[in-house]
Amino acid sequence: MSAGALVVMGVGWGVWATAFKDDTRELRASETCNEGIFSANVEPLERLISPDSSFTSDWSREATDSSLLLTCVNSTDDASVTMTAELKDGSIDEWRSQLKTVDNADASHFDVGTEAVVWGRQAAVYVECKPQSAGSSHTSGMDSPYLSILVRAGGSAAEEKTDKQQQDLAHLASRMFFEAQLQTGCREDFVAPSGPPRLAK
Prior knowledge:
Blueprint: H1 3-19, H2 35-38, H3 43-49, E1 56-64, E2 67-75, E3 79-89, H4 92-98, E4 108-110, E5 115-119, E6 122-128, E7 145-155, H5 163-184, E8 199-200
Antiparallel strand pairs: 1-2, 2-3, 3-7, 4-5, 4-8, 5-6, 6-7
């Protein structure tokens, strides 16, 4: 076989190997947007986005005396999971009206907060904010403060809905809810979930 043929074969093999390389990797909680959210279990996030070398994670916290917005974005080139927790003023009916894309026939509920629902590629939690002490929960001037948690999967994350993917979205929503409770003081006796929440129609 000629040297030229060997070079061509070598280049072809390199291209084939690159195309089929498995770049997925195991995440550590310390690599995520907020280690506390994922310290108990990072596997739900791993299953949803299949982290690889392109994985990035960003955390932001915007707070005033009368508002709080927490945002956690974990993504790769192909998938993303965006998690938000926002302190708002209003009723549960107003919160429900904001979730216009909920397909009730396709939705499952889970036992977190006052009301929690997962559907399609999203999970949401509502809970009344009852601060343990005045001034500790960014609720100044609010009549009916509540926490609104929303988790959205994008790209290839949860492309096809399965029970496991729905449970993973619900689990991440419950962990984001726990972090928001810690940062707002909305409820003194809240206990972090030890595992994935149970879904029910």
